[in-house]
Amino acid sequence: MALLEVTPKGLFCAAGGFHIDPSRSVERALITHAHSDHARPGSRAYLCAAESESLLRLRVGQRAPIQGSPRGERLRCGEVTVSFHPSGHVLGSAQIRVEYRGEIWVVSGDYKCASDPTCAAFELVRCHTFITESTFGLPIYRWPNPAGVFHEMTNWWQDNQATGRTSVVFAYSIGKAQRILASLDPEAGPFLAHPAVLDILPAYREAGVALPAVRPASPENIRTARGRALAIGPAATGASNWLDAIGPHVTAFASGWMALSHARHRQGSDRGFVLSDHADWTGLTETIQATGAERVFVTHGYVEPLVRWLREQGLDAQPLAPPNAIEVGVGRDVSEQEPAREP
Amino acid sequence: MKLFATLLEDLERAGDAPARVRALEHYFAAAPPADAAWAVFLLAGGRLRRALNLAQLRLWVGEACRLPIWLVEESSQAVGNYAETFSLLLPEHLPPPLLENGAQVQAQQEMSFGDANPAIRPDMGSPSGRLTLANLIEDRVLALIGMDRASQKAILWNIWTQLNGPERWLWHQLLAGSVHAAASRKELVEALSRKAGLPPTLIEHRLRSLEHPDQRPGAAGKSRTQRQPARRPGAPTPPATSDRTPFDFLSWIPTAEAYFGLLAPFDRSQDAPAPDPFCVTSNLEKEPASLGEPAEWLSEWQWGGTRAQLIRHDHGSVLWTDAGEDITAACPAVIRASSHLPPGTALEGAVLAWAQDRPLPMVQPPASRKRGHRKPPEQPTVPFIFMASDLLHCGGVDWRKEPLVRRRRQLERVLETFLAGQAQHQHPDSALTARPEDFFLANASNQGDGIQPETAIRCSPLLPLKSWSEAEAHRHAARAHGTEGLVLKPANSPYSAGGWLIWPAALFVVDAILVGIQPAPGGVPLSRRAYTVAVWDGPDLVPIALAACELDPAEADEVEAFAKENTRTRFGPVRALAPGLVIELAFAGMVSTHRRRSGFLLNQPRAIRLRRDRPPEQAATLALLRSFLSPGLVA
Fold this sequence. Notes:
The complex is a heterodimer of chains A (343) and B (635).
Chain A: E1 4-7, E2 10-13, E3 18-20, E4 28-30, E5 45-49, H1 53-60, E6 66-69, E7 75-77, E8 80-86, E9 94-100, E10 103-107, E11 129-134, H2 146-162, E12 166-170, H3 176-183, E13 191-193, H4 195-198, H5 201-206, E14 214-216, H6 219-225, E15 230-233, E16 249-254, H7 261-267, E17 271-273, H8 281-291, E18 295-301, H9 303-312, E19 316-319
Parallel strand pairs in A: 3-4, 4-5, 5-6, 10-11, 11-18, 12-15, 12-16, 13-14, 13-15, 16-17, 18-19
Antiparallel strand pairs in A: 1-2, 2-3, 7-8, 8-9, 9-10
Chain B: H1 2-13, H2 17-30, H3 33-43, H4 54-65, H5 69-79, H6 82-89, H7 133-144, H8 149-162, H9 165-176, H10 185-196, H11 200-211, H12 256-263, E1 281-283, E2 297-301, E3 306-313, E4 316-321, H13 332-338, E5 345-355, E6 358-359, E7 384-394, E8 397-398, H14 404-424, H15 430-433, E9 457-459, E10 462-463, H16 468-477, E11 485-490, E12 500-504, E13 508-519, E14 529-537, E15 540-549, H17 553-565, E16 567-571, E17 574-577, E18 582-587, E19 589-592, E20 600-603, E21 606-610, H18 622-627
Parallel strand pairs in B: 1-12, 7-9, 15-21
Antiparallel strand pairs in B: 2-10, 2-11, 3-4, 3-5, 5-6, 5-7, 7-8, 11-12, 13-14, 13-17, 13-18, 14-15, 16-17, 18-21, 19-20
Helix pairs in contact in B: 1-2, 2-10, 3-7, 3-12, 5-6, 6-9, 10-11
């Protein structure tokens, strides 16, 4: 019997008696990171990386039974040993290493290899079986250097300041938005943020991430800033009311999907910045090779192409869920928002 | 070519039309003329011949990226087009190319331009060495056609190493034959007109003349290979027809000279004049009796079609619509016929689709556009005629200040002379060489005793107007003649005073049942919805139209309230309602079609009134509507 198996409630370890990122309420849930498609309220006990605890509380409830595991700690769950290793996706995101009688499985969760000032860098964990995401699992996705992207963003911001228009950046409110705030130069102008982004900032500051001063994106603050501000908020259609009060503005969308012209066009923002919190093709393929795993399970994205590619490289690769499985976290990750379709 | 690649990027990022025009102006201010000519060609939609077989290019891209072809194909599915896919897949630094068919392939560091076979590239001078757009297209894209594989591969690698991502995307689009730019033709023309300081209509006309050289006088009747654009004096003679070069496939050859010609000052001997402003018309709101004596008015049919001005100038003719479009290329028969008019004449009228002796009815619904279907068969070319109703200039004299009755008399006189002149130009062989368009020219019968020959330029007949009741009777007969109603013009008015009143023919009105409601297309506010209406066919309800809402606000609110209460099902934003409300539906005409369940398509259906007094059982039946389709009753 495999160490980790797909069940209707999610990935389950029978020898340890726990689920990983379950889609329903379970007895014991190990959580890779606090995004809504991985962390759901209702379970009886939660275990996560220590840095992820405050964000997880925001997600599943302040009084939920959450235990945080600091870096380097190995815990015993049933007959298996589990440990959390940084995955570099958002603050507190982790890969979960499960060991049973010498056999090592690693669930990557969502990860990226690029540097990020808001979270610990990806840590390579060698294993026998690797369960990987594949959100951007095609060779067309190769990210430019993030430093270059932030430089572009700053130039764009300054061009907009010259014409007196507020710069508005749409980015996912947990992770991406904070990465942008931490990476741009605060000397360039004032930062404003939508409430969805503001609510997350205290958790980041407590964790020691250096963030600049950010004020709410209210009409008074916008007026005071007189076209020099950069406002960050989510791009969900329901949240677009906050733009009505902003006055003349120029919009941009920060996401890995902006690498494709049809996605830029569909999204409708004036500008697209190719910035992602997931690994690109190079990151995925190099990481998978570097773990030394002989067996690879692929989930969460371009599953079939990546599986076929890995098989052609000589690995034993398969999709994580059988084709008729339900609700096991396949599909697009919410943190990489696809441009909204019109109804 | 880096400038052009930057332009395409800027056009994509620009949010609105003024920003795009600014980006285009910026480009044309900086680009060298040979490049600018090619830019105009590409942005106006010009196509090159495909330089490289797609399958071969895909193989080579796979080799350059070291990826299997299935993965390249999978990637192109995600991206949506090959040009962008290839540019995303190629790495920054390419591996050296492999041997091709045993021939040595070397990506030389510098391949100087101008190496191409001079027989392929007639009389094109280009600055040596630099990677400009003109060089790239002429010496690399067009020259690739017909080369052996090893040389093609060498060129491909050579160019790839010199370009970055967005530039490679442009290069791939050029290899495929056309460039997709976010700018419309209007924006291109606007930018050029700002650079030259000339009105946009002039630029538009010049551009169209470049693209459709057979509209120039004397060019009719030449086959494609015989048609040659203007060449510089002293240029070598072009190659014989049998050796077609890639340049022959271009609709026009963009040279620096052509570009300067586009921007040159207005030249009376070369250019067509812009149209005069059209006079203002309005709808007749009051009773016709309140207009005064019938004797002070002239009445004609209000033709459908497009209002246009036909200008016969010194060296040809041009046809402008009231929206400022140059439709010279679309109406070849009219232009040919107008060559018999005296130069310096301008007529105003309508461009109509014509068959036998009446206008064609409303255009049929377009063929299915669903993806995956085969392309619909080519629509047969529709014969257009020009129905003249007013004379603005005649033989160089401005007639616009003259009263309408004098202009009309002069118009009739000119057209009679013109028709007689046409009869003189007939020669006995015309029947043998006649083509379908020649149907509109005078036929070989020149009896000259009152029988009007078929012609592409006609005079809109004046209707007798002795009393307003007579006008009313004409109005009722309007649809039977294929027109949309009457137009009343003050008899003694100069052209600029206008005052023309359009009296549309009565609409057909039926009582139909409201069965669906949905947001109107085009983003109008919620109160202006679109209604699906149906009529009875035995016990069933058959939907007949999606009607625009022209109810009073109070009635519209009542319909909304009804819809909220009586929704049976929802299909997204569309609500299907239980039958209960009767709407008065007005429409201008009907056309029979097999693609609708009802068997017909209504022209401009709108809901004009809510009939609260009628129960649904008393609404119209399908049989009643189908009876309208009999000829003579509807347009």
